[in-house]
Amino acid sequence: MRYLWSGMRACLDRAFDISGRGSSIPKEVVAGITTFGAMAYIMAVNPNILASAGLDQHAMVITTIASAVVGSFIMAVGANLPIALAPVMSSNVVFAQIVVVRMGVPPAQAFTMVLLGGLGFLFLSLTPWRRRIVETFPLSVKQGIHFAIGAFVAHIGIVNGGLVTKGGEGLVFGQLSNPVVLLALAGVFLAMMLKWARIPAAILLSVIAVTIAGLWVAHPDGSRVTQLPAHWVDWPSYPWFMLFPYDFHGLFANLFLVLPITLYFFLGDFFDATGTMMAVMQRSGLKDKQGQPLLAKSAFVADATASVIGSALGTSTVSAYLESLVGVEEGGRTGLTALVVACLFAVSSILWPLIICVPAVATASALILVGLGMLGSLPDLKSLAVQERVIPLFMLLVTVLTGDFMVSLAFGLLLHTAFVLTTRKWAELTLMLCGLDCVFILYLVLSSRLGN
């Protein structure tokens, strides 16, 4: 048995270059478990959102899990990066609440739009334009992406934990008389103390501890924070009627309505995935030969392929998850982390009733800790010229106030262009930069129109 394990360990190390990236199999497994724990909520949230568009909720649970398994597996094997994939939160809301409910587009046509957006992303990923676009982002915007996502992740954790609530004068601190708020604070303190003590899997342990404690803590309405399911195991049955749920005939009959929505899905998928993967890999410290975050073409191809397959399985846009940062914090550096996530999602198709009982307040500490860790690199602003430092800080401010990372990315790039024009650095005013500015302006216009 010992020789079998040694051979398996050597095989995994060669396949994923684990030692070469300064990691180990236990670290990768813990990172995968932690990442999965931070994003398992999508199994409950995504079906609820898509069900509001008239889709069967149980079917959406299975398609959500299936797309997460396939997407994370493709990223693990195809790109060897510690990035997990699943249906993303922004696109599912646009898909269900805006495209289907508000605009009256049938779900089959909406799935076709997701497919076309994914195919556009895949085509771009296979061409040299993808890398040129990524390299066009200046250092100030790259740092802004890092800070903005850090603030966004921490903001999600703070809100999920009830540590801040919306009041008459904006955001206010949660009521300390509320035991749920105290539980969230205890989780944050526990996670930080375990981290300071260099305890392995500190974030995961804090999530488990808060989940267990939630069995005895109640919300103001009397319901328990952690509610055990009626049954822990539910054998899955795949909704085959959701495979290839497309309607091309109806789609092209409404071409002028379809084009802007499809473009929205394409732009959102490409730039959201680009920003997320850049932030995750920048945090990992892995660099390519040019000293840039390790993001080969295969990573973008994997993300785009997952989005195409996700639409074929019957779910909204599948893309890289910010929660992958949690796994990177635990030492994840290779695709083995993503493979563990894929395996856990596969297992969850049977155990999902138990897994989704993990409350949002339990994952709050993980998100807050990761977000603060990213903001810890604020001293890196010293590497920028004094005039340029306002760009990443403005991106950080926009993200905190709006909770919209894509908007902050758009304004960051537009601000950089304004800086280039003002300081007359004509060599930096490339056609690619101007083209990206036009694309982001179009994105902002489309976002505004779809949001009204």
From TrEMBL:
Subcellular location, record wording: Endomembrane system
Domain of life: Bacteria
Keyword terms, alphabetized: Membrane, Transmembrane, Transmembrane helix, Transport
GO molecular function, one term: purine nucleobase transmembrane transporter activity
Membrane topology: Multi-pass membrane protein
Transmembrane segments: 29-49, 61-85, 105-124, 145-164, 176-194, 201-219, 251-273, 334-354, 361-378, 390-414, 426-446
Entry's Gene Ontology cellular component terms: endomembrane system; plasma membrane
InterPro entries attached to this UniProt entry: Azg-like, NCS2
Pfam families assigned: Xan_ur_permease
Official protein name in the record: Adenine permease AdeP
Homology family: Belongs to the nucleobase:cation symporter-2 (NCS2) (TC 2.A.40) family. Azg-like subfamily.
